[in-house]
Write a structure and sequence with these properties.
204 residues; alpha+beta; 2 domains; 7-stranded mixed β-sheet; 4 helices; 11 strands; binds guanosine-5'-diphosphate-alpha-D-mannose; binds magnesium ion; metal ion binding; GDP-mannose pyrophosphatase; hydrolase
């Protein structure tokens, strides 16, 4: 069996090593190196589906909305880094579209009702280990869109603090390594590079 568009890949077999919350598969495959030699290789792939994230920004206030929550994998890596500051994000349920997911997560996690969002980046977050592809959005927010306190779903054991912080401070937090989540850094830098938040726009 050959993989789509790849004639240097064949005989792919999949063994599920673990299937609880998500699925860990070992995938074995024959791969032909540039020198022509074929080798049987093996890679573990963790599959928890795809994800969506959003950076909410307000031009008048020059602020962004972020979340703060405990992340066990980050704590496991470095116990001082367990509390993670991130853009609002959620896993995409099987049949959902990324936009539907992010509109729902925005209400659940930060309490803002948005009706539209702009897809600005699509990125594999860790393509050597995760199957996950992330869809990254931006949207403007204002206080009229705040319809609930947010904080995440108790039924899902979510415990999310909502932060509204000046954009300039968020950029400083990247420099100080207080924001170390990749999707969040990408979104903040997208807003910076594309000048979505600049003082002139706010009339400052
Ligand atoms: N029991 C159990 N529950 C889990 C596990 N992993 C996640 N959950 C539950 O599933 C919920 C997932 O919440 P979401 O808001 O949908 O996802 P997320 O954890 O914020 O993930 C988002 O960010 C991740 C980190 O950047 C992304 O990896 C992911 O794709 C998504 O965008 C969590 O609150 C938790 O209740 C697990 O291993 N075990
Ligand atoms: Mg989330």
């Amino acid at each position: 069996m050959f993989c789509k568009n790849m004639n240097n890949l064949k005989n792919i077999t999949k063994t599920t090593l673990s299937k609880e919350w998500a699925r860990l598969d070992r995938i074995d495959y024959d791969y032909q190196f540039k020198n022509g030699e074929w080798k049987r290789l093996s890679r573990e792939c963790y599959n928890r589906g795809n994800g969506a994230a959003i950076l909410l920004y307000n031009v008048e206030r020059q602020t962004v909305i972020l979340t703060k929550q405990f992340r066990m994998p980050a704590y496991e890596n470095n116990s001082r880094e367990g509390m993670s500051i991130e853009a609002c994000a959620g896993a995409i349920d099987n049949n959902d579209k990324p936009l539907e997911t992010i509109i729902r997560e925005t209400e659940e996690e930060v309490g803002y009702k948005i009706s539209e969002a702009k897809l600005v980046l699509t990125a594999y977050t860790s393509p050597g280990a995760l199957t996950e592809k992330m869809f990254l959005f931006v949207a403007e927010y204002d206080e009229n869109m705040k319809i609930s306190k947010g904080g995440g779903l108790e039924s899902e054991d979510e415990d999310i603090e909502i932060l509204e912080i000046p954009f300039s401070e968020a950029l400083e937090m990247i420099k100080k390594e207080e924001i170390i989540d990749a999707k969040t850094i990408m979104l903040l830098q997208y807003v910076q590079i594309n000048k979505l938040l600049i003082p002139e726009k706010a009339g400052i």
